[in-house]
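thought: fold this chain, then report.
action: predict
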Amino acid sequence: MSHDSATLEAVQIESDGNFSYPEDYDLDAGYGLNAGVVDYISNVKDEADWLRDFRQRALKVFEDKPMPTHWASRDLENIHFQNIRYYLAKKQRATRNWEDVPDDVKRTFERLGIPEKERKFLAGVEAQFDSEAAYSNIKDEVAKDGVIFVNSTEGLREHPELFRKWFGKVIPTGDNKFSALNSAVFSGGSFIYVPPGVKVRHPLQAYFRINAEQFGQFERTLIIVDEGAEVTYMEGCTAPKFDTATLHSAVVELVAMKDAKIQYITVQNWSNNVFNLVTKRAIAHENAEVRWIDCNIGSRLTMKYPGVVMKGRKARGEVISIALANTGQHQDTGAKMIHAADETTSNVVSKSISVGEGRSTYRGQVHIPRHLKGCRNNTECDALLINSRSRTDTYPAITVRGNQHAVQHEASVSQVSAEQIFYMQQRGLSEGEAMSLSVNGFVNDLVREFPMEYSVELKRLIDLEMEGSVG
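observation:
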C-alpha cells in the first residue's frame, strides 16, 4: 500500500489523536482471556519460568476477585473481558533508529508529533503501538551517566536482577482486580533506572497509542531513582474513537531512594469509548520527593488515584490533577497519601471541570497513624460546573490519629458566571471562546506546573473539548 493511499484511509474526526490505520499484525492472541492467552504472551516474549508462573497466578487472582463495587460507576458492567484482544504486535523489537520503525507505525507517531518533540526538548523517548514499543531511544550524553531507559520487555531481559527486585513490590498483584489483570497480561511500558547522584536535566517521555478496535493495552512501568538522583518522566496517551469498548489498564510503580526526586507527568486524551483503569503508586524513602502531575481528558470512564507511600523520614508526596468530563464521560480521579514515617509531608491539589452532562469525582485517601510525629497534609479540591446538567462529587477520606500533626482540607464548587460570559462576548469573543477562556483561567495556576510544551498542548485540548459544549 502506498503512503498516500494509506493516509487516505486514516480517519480523523475531532482531534489529532482520533484517527486509525488499517490493522496489520504478525502476532495476535485472539479474543478473550484464559490461561492459553497468558501462555501465548509468555511464549512470544520468550520469558523465564518465574515470570510465566507470575502471570498465571495473577490470572487466578483476577478471576477470583469480584468487580469493584466501592468505586463510583456502574459503567464497569459494560466491560466484556471475553470480547477484548489482549496482545497485538508486529514481530520486530523496538528499534533505536527512527528510520527502522515500520512505515504504518511511523506515520501514526509522526502525525502525533513524534519525533519532533524528541529532537526539541527530550532526553529520551519511547513510542508504544498497541502491545509493544516500536521505538525506544535515549540520548548518548544521558546514557553515559548510566541512566537506563528501555521498554519493560527489554528491562526484564537485560536487567533482570534490578527489575525483579522492585517488580510488583510497590503494587502487589492482588491490590485490585485490574492490577491483577495487568499482572497477567502486561506488555510494554517503560523501565527507568537513574544511578546515585545523577540528575537527568531534560524529561524522558513515553507515548502510548492504541490503534486497534476491541483491544486492551496493559503497559507496565517501573521507575527506580537511586540515592540523590532526579528525573522527570512524561507520558501521553491517545486512541481513535470506535463504537466498541477499548480497555486501558496500566500499572505504574515508582521507587524514590533517599534524597531522590521523581516528577511523573501524564497528559491523556483518550477517546470516549476507552475504559481507563490505572493503578499508580510510589514509595518515597528518607527525604525523597515524588510529584504526580496528572491531566485527564477524554475516556468513557477513568479511575485513577496516584499514590505515595512516604516510607522514610521527611519524605514528601504531591499530586496535582486536572480532570475534564464531557457528556458521556466520568472522571473518577484523586490521590492516596500514606504517611509511614515521622515528619512526612503530603499535598493534594485537584481541579475538575464538568461539561454538558459530564461527571467528575474526586476520591482521596490520606492516612496518618497514631505512632507518627510531625506529619503534615494539605488537600484542596475545586470543581467547576459549566451548566446545570453537569455533576461533581467529592469523597475525601482523611484519617489522622494522634495530636502531633497538621492537616487541612478545603473544597469548593462553582459555576461559570453568565455575567462573566456576557461581558467577554461584549468584548468580541464568541460564547465558546469565552467559556474556554473561563475554564483555562480556572486551571491556570496548575497548568503552570506543566513543562511549556505540555501546557500549550493542554490548553489546546481544553479548547477542543469546549467547542460545541455551550448552547
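thought: worth noting. Confidence is low (pLDDT under 50) at residues 1-15.
final: C-alpha cells above.
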